[in-house]
Structure formats: structure tokens, C-alpha cells
Amino acid sequence: MKYRIIADSSSNIFQIEKNEQSENMDYVSVPLKIITDEKEYTDDDKLHTGKMVNELSTYKGKSTTSCPNINDWLNAFGDSEQIFALSITSALSGAYSAALQAKDVYLERHPQAKVCIIDTLSTGPEMELLIEKIIEFIGKGIEFEEIEKRIQKYQSRTHLLFSLESLKNFVNNGRVHPAIAAAAGVLGIRIVGKASEEGTLQPLHKCRKEKQIFRKMAEEMKNEGFQNGKIRIAHCMNEAMANKLSSFLKEEFGDCDIKIRTCGGLCSYYAEKGGVLLGFEGSDI
Ligand code: X90
Q1: Does 93 sit in the ligand 1 pocket, CB within 6 Å?
Q2: Does any ligand 1 atom lie closer than 6 A to the CB of residue 7?
Q3: Best exposed site among 75, 83, 161, 215 by fewest CB in 10 Å?
């Protein structure tokens, strides 16, 4: 296998489609973990996410998450010759740092190999866009170094928006300042925000009505120069809102390329029930 694409499980992608374009590559997902005093959930394709979310909603104790360590990344590298590995934002997780260290170890053992570690400064559906783009570049036969350059450029065009009913798990895990999260948790209020340039959670609006959320999201997309690029949506047990958002955006922007999927374990844990994430392509800067 010539190329291996690897992403941590916050991408919500557990396998890629096998077709002519992806002949020359394989894909490995590296799980994060969700941990309580009683149980450890490994975020792989066998995890029953809905069951986990329900169990956690009645669980009274502390819960946390852990990112892949150097060894987890090394196992995912296998003995591949050309590797693209994508991590969740380094501003909120140690996944990127572990991947970088794994790269050093790997290159000592495999001096001929090429390894590109990408700090997505984001997660979920924005990561999905980056994975799709790497598949496209490899499929077109573009060289490793050129893909590295182009994906960096592409990354400056992609963005992540979210609508969250609660920031409880963010606050409890010290990943967002309590003052920032003050409004979240008020019944009926949803926080609409984005992944900042630095890869942190940036709240933008407090909304009650779905229509208001959709309008704010569309506004944000216009600000970033969205025209008719790709849109990727991931939701935590909220297919109805994801579908409505998709219809709203099609009315707003015309018939664009939208795909909807469910959040895996890690995104579900932080986005919580009802959470919706949206990745999209803005304009070149
Ligand atoms: O344990 C770990 O290392 C993982 C920590 C992950 C923290 C962030 C998870 C984000 C999941 C929630 C909504 C989008 C927020 C965007 C912020 C960049 C998705």
C-alpha cells in the first residue's frame, strides 16, 4: 500500500469508500477514549454511541477523555511508506503532540518513509473535508510534498461551525473557560460558534430558535466566502435538525454538495445530545 491516511476518531470517519480513486491508499482511524470511574469507551466503529450518550446522561460521577499516545499512533503508522496523519486541534488535545513524537520515532526506524502530521486546529466535519481532499490529491497522482503544500493551503479555506445545547463536558474537563460557557446550560439556549483560527472553541451567538441558528450559520459562511463549495454536517442524535439545516442551506445557497453523518464517540461526548457540527469550504485567502 503506497499511501496511508490516518485520523483520530474525532473526525467521525472510521473507514473510507473503496473505489478507483482510493486504490492506492488505505485509511486507519485512531480512537480517543471516553472514561468514567466505571467504564472506558473506545471510540471505534464498534462503539454504540447512542448507548454511551444515554449512559453518560444519567451518570453522576466524573468523566473525561484521553487522546491517542505515541504508541497508538505508531501502531496506526504500521510500516507504511507515505503517511498523512490528521489530529484534532492541538489547542484542546494532546493528540497532535503525540503524533509529532510518533513521527520522530517512526522516521528513525523507517528513514525512507514520508510522514506528514496535520494539526487540523479543528475536528469533526472540517477534518472530514481535509481527509476527502487528501484522498482526491492522492487519487490524482500528486506527489507527497506537493500534497503537503496544497493541503495546508486548503486548510486555510475550511471552517467549522457548531450549535451546542450544553458545554458541560467542555467546562468539566477544563477545555473552555466557565465564563465563556455561562449561557450554555440555560434551558432552550444554544450556543452557536466556531473553531477559532487558533483552534479553540469560540462562541458567537446565543440562539433559541432553530431558524435563528441556521441564519447565523449561513451568515458566518457568507463572511468566509462560501459560495457553492462542500458542506459536511455531523450531529449527535439530532438527525432532524441536521436535515433541516441542510434544506435551509440548499435554499440559501442553491444545490450544494452536502453530506450528513452521525458523530462518533468523542464528538458526541463534547457536542452532547442535540449538538450539530458543520464544516464548509470558504473562499481562498
Ligand atoms: O482528551 C482529549 O485529548 C480530547 C479533547 C477534545 C476536546 C474538543 C472536542 C471537540 C468535539 C465539539 C464541538 C466543536 C468545538 C470546536 C472547537 C475547536 C466537538
Answers
A1: yes
A2: no
A3: 75
